Amino acid sequence: MPVSAVVSGGRAIECLELESGMLKWWIPLAIAESLVGTAAPEPAQVGLITINGAIGPATANYVARAIDAAAEQRDQCLIILLDTPGGLLESTKDIVQTFYASKVPVVVYVSPSGASAGSAGVFITLAADIAAMAPNTVIGAAHPVAFGIGGGADSTNKVMKEKMENYTSSFIESIADKRHRNVEWAKSAVLKSVATTAQKALKANVIDLIADDVPDLLKKLDGRTAGGRILQTANAKIVDIPMSAGERVFQLIWRPEVMFLLLLIGLALIGLAIALFVIDVFAPTHGVLTAGGVVSFFLGALMLFNRAAPGFGLSLAWIIPATVITAAFFTFMVGSGIRAQFKPVRAGTETMIGKRVIALSLTDSRGGQVFFEGERWNAVSEISIEPGQSGEVTGRNGLTLNVKPTT
């Protein structure tokens, strides 16, 4: 065989071995890529929360936390099941601002049948990326109602009422305009307390859709654009985001009957604080009762004012100084005045009794003169006192001292 043939044959063998080695590596890689390429994608999911009751600070906190959780879970959207008669305007504003800043689309669904989105619920529903209602539900009646003392209709109340109406109508107008909803209907819900059913709300461009239940809602949301994304919710997994224990307690506090009980407890605590301050003046407790009074006053003020309606609340910046000033007032001013009542008299006849005198002349029942604290006084004594002899004051009658010899 020629040398060239052997060489070329050797190269052919080397190439064949090289190709065989590469094939061993390529086959597993190709299989792995095919498995990855054909692996089923993770199913989409949506977050779900339920708001049933008045809108308050606990609700606003719950909504904000749920939106953050939904964004962290990369949910397609957050669905809020809503049934509310209304609530606080400040908390409603917080929720609307949270919707605007949300990184995940927000869907407000007034549900179940028979539910309503009243007052604050109107603002919240219109502010959502997608507004939905179940059949036989109601939305509207968003006229502002102020929390106040008394029910007079004086000029001040009329002015405040007009200011509130103007502000809330402008607020809901801005919401409807941002979400491209019916601005005129939104304003009428505030100014005229207009309310409407789900079917009429859909026709009036107040909401985006009507769904029988949550599964039906997911089907109708699928393919819609919200928050800059196309929703894929047809077969999405629903993940509940429950209220925390603290939010539940806070929400419970906002029930009217609970607030009334807290009001009574607050008044009782403030009364107890004042009683402890006064008792500590008489009792030698070295400030223990005063310390209890400070704690009682602080808790009472906190219950009375820190959870009051907007315009009637006080922050800790006011409650803490008020507690300190009240405690100081009772401890130093009132305490000093009461203690002074029990101290020995430091002026008048009582301060003379028992003090020493020197007879300047014979002093007996007919009279005489004595020297007392640098002054010459007329004096009488039942027992004669010789000049130069000492005695002590036993009483006083006008400008005459009653004295007796010193024993």
SSE sequence, one letter per element: HEHEHEEHEEHHEHEHEEEHHHHEEEEE
The spatial strand order of the largest sheet comes to 8-5-3-2-1-11
Ends apart, CA distance between termini: 160 Å
Q: Residue share in helices?
A: 40-55%
Summary of the model, kept short:
Helices cover 49% and strands 17% of the residues. The chain has helices at residues 3-38, 57-72, 89-101, 120-127, 155-178, 183-191, 198-203, 214-221, 245-253, 256-282, 288-305, 316-340; strands at 45-52, 78-83, 106-110, 116-118, 130-133, 138-140, 195-197, 209-210, 225-226, 229-230, 237-240, 356-359, 369-372, 375-381, 390-397, 400-405.
List the SSEs and their pairings.
Elements: H1 3-38, E1 45-52, H2 57-72, E2 78-83, H3 89-101, E3 106-110, E4 116-118, H4 120-127, E5 130-133, E6 138-140, H5 155-178, H6 183-191, E7 195-197, H7 198-203, E8 209-210, H8 214-221, E9 225-226, E10 229-230, E11 237-240, H9 245-253, H10 256-282, H11 288-305, H12 316-340, E12 356-359, E13 369-372, E14 375-381, E15 390-397, E16 400-405
Parallel strand pairs: 1-2, 1-11, 2-3, 3-5, 4-6, 5-8, 14-16
Antiparallel strand pairs: 6-7, 9-10, 12-13, 12-15, 13-14, 15-16
